[in-house]
Amino acid sequence: MAADHYQAVFDALAELPQLYPFPQGGNPNVPANADYSIAVLQRAKAAEERGVEALERMLGVLLDG
Q1: Which of 39, 46, 51, 55 is the most buried (most CB within 10 A)?
Q2: pTM score, two decimals?
Q3: Is 49 strand, coil or helix?
């Protein structure tokens, strides 16, 4: 279901504010922070791609039905 995939996007992105708190912003230039952030963003992107695929399947069913 698309909602599950978008929940995974939210869950992944919710990890980043802990690393980059407002207003200080954290330190994205620390290699460990950068690596972690990249992994989180890749995880969010993959989940969003799956969500889009689910939505496209749903649209196909609606248009064919």
Answers
A1: 51
A2: 0.86
A3: helix
